[in-house]
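To whoever is covering the structure queue this week,

Two jobs came back overnight. Logging them here so there's a record in the thread.

Job A:
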Amino acid sequence: MEDRKMLWQDPKEIHMNQQGAWLALGDYNAILDSEDRIRGNLVREMEIMDFNEFLLDSSIIEMRSSGKSFTWTNRHVSSKIDRV
């Protein structure tokens, strides 16, 4: 299995073994689409494909949030990588 796909293996197993609703929150260090990053390299399909696939396969939906749109910055690039 490719290294980038292994990242989502543990959460997929939790989903398969979980009965009922569950909540996952944290710094996923991954973006879902190009609007989740500003002032950086262009977002490539390869960067968002695995995270999106994991969410679809697991029937997980992101909770709506308020406040700052971007949760990480290095003062040059800003990204939304923290999610609930």
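Job B:
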Amino acid sequence: MTLQKIGGFAALICAATYLFGFAFLVSTFAPLGFGTNSIDGPAVVAFIQSQPGLLILWNTVIYIINAIALALLVAALHGRLKSSRTDFAMVTLVLGIIWATLVIGAGMIGNVAVERAAHLAQTDVSQAVQVWQTLHAVELGLGGGNEIAGGIWIGCVSLAGLLGRTLGQISIGLGLVTAAGGLLTLFPAIGDVAGAVFGLGAIAWFIAIGCSLLFSRSATPLPHGGEVA
């Protein structure tokens, strides 16, 4: 299996993790205020006391699994883009690695926040709330509360694809819209709306990129022409 096809499957996994995250945001986690500026810390800790595994699962899927798949996609797209725009390809590689690192870091901190809150809530609920809120703020700062790093990477990939004619028009268009949404999360007043635009746009973009990598005739072989079992 070529690196390009591995990247295609990775892109679809990224899309699936976003869909998984959105499904929980609008259902199970909606009463807690996740994804908004009015998250209810005490309610979150109460939820953690009753179902800590569910939050850990959510963090693991939307952050850690997503970051691993994202790293593979970054490598595949670098291979795709470097054939026509070596300069842009290197920029996208660096930016993609930065984003994947931030995402996996946010997931690890998110899981530690759940574990610490669950432990502290056994003896001091108010301290558990304070610790969770502090660690959650760090998680949001790394990427859970803004999409600047992702917006920049997707935007650069789309521009490189446009200049090098290595990506389709649909992928490029979706990428530019998604990138704009990510960059606009910088502004708190429209952060929720911009975040939704980025998230929904990213799902469509990951699917478009995944299909492009899987079904395109061009392929980037693995080192030494190896095959993956």
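Note for Job B: The two ends are 8 Å apart (CA to CA).

Please reply-all if you pick these up so we don't duplicate work.
Q.
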